[in-house]
Amino acid sequence: MQELVRQGIPVRALVRNLETAQTVLPTQAEIVVGDVLNTASLAAAIAGCTVVICATGAKPSFDPAGPYSVDYEGTKNLVNVAKQTGIEHFVLVSSLCVSRFFHPLNLFFLILVWKKKAEEYLQQSGLTYTIVRPGGLKNEDRPEPPVHIVMESADQLFEGSIPRLQVAQTCVAALSTPTAKNRIVEIVARETAPAQPFEALFAGVS
């Protein structure tokens, strides 16, 4: 959100709780209340938009249906409405290792399984898409020493972390980078990686 605002791109944020959103989101963002499990609210939320960046995810809980409902059904709903309203580019934030069934994260109600199913649904939708699979998310946006993005194609990276800011930057860059279209990219950040522009990072993914 902040990255879109920083680049001067008009942005509308879909949130479930207005009061919470107003305390954390930039004042320049238009805020609409809705839920990915409520398709009627989605249609109103993205009306007039040209692109969608989907970064939803089930909150940790004891609800075994959480990942299925939010990560799969919720994403499916958003994809369907995006297709109906003519969205030009759909960027989905997924996760590293979604193709590994025997991964510890799947102990949490198959969360990676449902993220992978959501990816597949988007790929089959006919929408122009970019799927971004980040490593473990870190809240330190500007770590010292600095780290730079490593980008690979699907199922090439299996460990590593990345600041949330660099994930956001990748998603925003995908919207204006032709070689990002209809691609799955995996990203982590490392001190030893060279700094590269996003055009080169996306172009280097086979």
Helix-strand blueprint:
Elements: H1 2-6, E1 12-15, H2 18-24, E2 30-33, H3 39-46, E3 51-54, H4 66-84, E4 89-93, H5 111-123, E5 129-134, E6 136-138, E7 148-152, E8 161-163, H6 164-174, E9 183-190, H7 198-203
Parallel strand pairs: 1-2, 3-4, 4-5, 5-9, 6-8
Antiparallel strand pairs: 7-9
Care to describe what's here?
The chain is an alpha/beta fold and 206 residues long. It has a single domain, classed as Rossmann fold. Helix content is 33%, strand content 20%. The protein has helices at 2-6, 18-24, 39-46, 66-84, 111-123, 164-174, 198-203, and strands at residues 12-15, 30-33, 51-54, 89-93, 129-134, 136-138, 148-152, 161-163, 183-190. The strands form 3 sheets. Strands 3-4-5-9-7 form a 5-stranded mixed sheet, with helices on both faces. Strands 1-2 form a two-stranded parallel sheet. Helix 3 crosses helix 4 and helix 4 runs parallel beside helix 5 (111-123). The longest helix is centred in the middle third of the chain and has 19 residues, at 66-84. The two termini are 28 Å apart. The mean pLDDT is 95.
